[in-house]
Amino acid sequence: MGMPGVGKGTQATRLAERVGVVHLSSGDILREAVREKTPPGRQAKDTMASGKLVPDELIGDMISERLARADVEVGFILDGFPRTVVQVSILDRVLAKREISLDRVVLLTATEQEIVRRLSGRRVCESCGTVYHVESKPSSRGEACEQCDGALIQRPDDTEEVIRERLRVYREQTLPIADAYKERGLLVTVEGTGAPDEVFERLHSELVAA
């Protein structure tokens, strides 16, 4: 868990590869359930078609369904859920049903200034979706994509105003989860600033030490 743009998906993927477990992204689980037309997936599709948010309980059902598969028996890394205190309770019930317990909860941290810098500098090719950054990964073709020559754009949710609103929601809704898991003795806090390789080695060392 951590702020938007702190690198949760990147580090979860790398950690899953290093320790040989499955990386489970809540977004991927939702999309797969809809694509596979599972009962929760069909419900979610109808909900999204009406312009509403998918209920927490429904996401919980999808995660429970995913945890029933054989590939998670050796372990998994869950990314993107829970994001609210209510979702913590839902995950507790899902895990209890499957007789699974969490080993660790990782909180990646960074300053808000760093998050704003990362996200506001992100540019995406409107044709092929390749991601660049004006500082850390600029295109050699300026405002054009190196892959397909498409125009590079800033997504609406990458403007500073929207980013700061997302961070406000994170502070109010998601950060309290860290306190809940800290009380259970599960929380490991890792500094998420720096190159991805540096962050990963820091993360792996903290988990080994824990």
Helix content: 40-55%
| N-to-C series of helices and strands | HEHHHEHEHEEEHEH
- The best one-word shape is globular
* CATH secondary-structure class: Alpha Beta
End-to-end CA span = 17 Å
Q: Give the helix/strand class.
A: alpha/beta
Mean pLDDT figure: 92
Biggest sheet, open or closed, and with what strands and sense? 3 strands, antiparallel
Extended strand count: 7
* Overall structural domain count: 1
Q: What strand line-up does the widest sheet have?
A: 5-4-6
Low-pLDDT ranges: none
Q: From the alpha-carbon coordinates, what is the Rg to the nearest angstrom? A: 18 Å
Here the CATH topology equals Rossmann fold
CATH superfamily: P-loop containing nucleotide triphosphate hydrolases
CATH architecture: 3-Layer(aba) Sandwich
Strand content: 5-15%
Number of helices: 8
Write out key terms for the chains shown.
210 residues; Rossmann fold; three-stranded antiparallel β-sheet; two-stranded parallel ribbon; 8 helices
Polypeptide structure, described:
The structure is a single chain. This protein has helices at 8-19, 26-36, 39-49, 56-66, 85-97, 112-120, 160-183, 196-209, and strands at 22-25, 76-79, 105-109, 122-125, 131-133, 152-153, 187-191. It is an alpha/beta fold. The protein has a single domain (8-121, 158-209), classed as Rossmann fold, CATH 3.40.50. A 3-stranded antiparallel β-sheet has the order 5-4-6. A hairpin with a 5-residue loop joins strand 4 and strand 5 (131-133). It is globular and about 50 Å long. The protein starts with 7 loop residues before the first helix and ends with a helix.
